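Structure first, sequence second, as always.
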């Protein structure tokens, strides 16, 4: 029997509540698909910072490196720790474990309402691949003469050939696997989300690498869109998209818009992937910690459960992943259990229980 060891970092706000649902679903699929799961909790986050002056221990990466995967509940509570400090935990794991592909599926399930009129289960089925370790979030720069009339800030983006090429190649490989367009060429399409008309160094370089990689994938259609136009087209014509590849900043922005296409942040899951599996990958709902809802059991756990589905898929447990997705679709399509964000009154654990029951059936 296969065994998996998963690190759990509940974090802040609603993190503990949604992590409980993650554990619940992990247990149910392991029972059904003949593998075992052990988990270990780590109390890193804003409360840890208040006690120790840091979001996590210095040897965090050494502690986590031998786990099969990491589940992150949510990080951040601005009333306790400034956001630019609390984010250091997340960025340290992404960069330290070379999780260079941020994988964000955007799919609207039947039974879910969305504020976007053009969105339907037939039109919304795409994946955004966001470069996850460099670009605009490289953290280079500084503040000079702060608090004076001469104050200025410098923030430097870093775009390496290696960094651009490997994430763009990952996007083309994924499009080839998804085969959204056809079983014959072109089997899929990769949209390059760029801004090379204004960012005349970084994005021109990014585009050149995109075109070089694309030449190796004759069976995958190419597509290009400036980031501002892409946000418009995501709303106007969501059916157009298959796989979108974007820099760290642009991918961060367009995936929140994508979450609205799929019904809201409560449905949006993400994976921070080290494709070579040299290091553990990390999976998380992308909705944040929402401290104002902590302890009220009102948040939607679907994003958490979808993150667990992505984790099992990454670890090679394809049937377990499909089992979770089928269960989510069944519960949502029935319309019997609806959390607050869906216009209902059911609690976080009630939605989790319904999906667990569907998994076991």
């Amino acid at each position: 029997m296969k065994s998996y060891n998963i690190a759990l970092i509940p974090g802040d706000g609603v993190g503990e509540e949604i992590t409980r649902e993650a554990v619940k679903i992990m247990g149910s699929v392991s029972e059904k698909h003949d593998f075992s799961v052990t988990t270990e909790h780590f109390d890193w986050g804003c409360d840890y910072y208040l006690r120790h002056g840091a979001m996590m221990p210095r040897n965090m990466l050494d502690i986590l490196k031998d786990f099969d995967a990491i589940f992150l509940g949510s990080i951040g509570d601005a009333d306790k720790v400034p956001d630019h400090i609390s984010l250091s935990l997340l960025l340290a794991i992404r960069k330290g474990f070379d999780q260079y592909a941020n994988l964000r599926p955007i799919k609207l399930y039947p039974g879910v309402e969305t504020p976007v009129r053009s969105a339907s289960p037939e039109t919304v089925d795409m994946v955004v691949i966001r470069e996850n370790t460099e670009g605009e979030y490289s953290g280079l720069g500084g503040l000079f003469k702060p608090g004076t009339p001469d104050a200025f800030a410098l923030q430097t983006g870093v775009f390496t050939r290696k960094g651009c090429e490997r994430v763009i190649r990952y996007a083309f490989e994924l499009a080839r696997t998804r085969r959204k367009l056809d079983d014959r060429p072109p089997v899929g399409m990769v949209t390059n989300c760029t801004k090379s008309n204004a960012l005349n160094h970084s994005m021109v370089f990014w585009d050149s690498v995109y075109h070089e990689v694309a030449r190796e994938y004759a069976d995958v259609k190419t597509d290009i869109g400036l980031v501002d136009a892409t946000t418009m087209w995501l709303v106007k014509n969501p059916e157009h998209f298959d796989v979108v590849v974007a820099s760290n900043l642009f991918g961060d922005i367009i995936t929140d818009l994508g979450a609205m296409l799929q019904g809201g942040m409560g449905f949006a899951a993400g994976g921070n992937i080290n494709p070579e599996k040299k290091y553990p990958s990390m999976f998380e709902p992308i909705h944040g910690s929402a401290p104002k809802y902590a302890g009220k059991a009102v948040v939607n756990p679907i994003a958490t459960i979808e993150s667990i589905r992505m984790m099992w898929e990454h670890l090679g447990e394809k049937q377990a992943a499909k089992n979770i997705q089928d269960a989510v679709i069944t519960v949502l399509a029935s319309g019997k259990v609806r959390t607050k964000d869906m216009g209902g009154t059911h609690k976080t654990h009630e939605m989790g229980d319904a999906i667990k029951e569907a998994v076991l059936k």
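Margin note: The CA atoms of residues 249 and 341 lie 27 Å apart.
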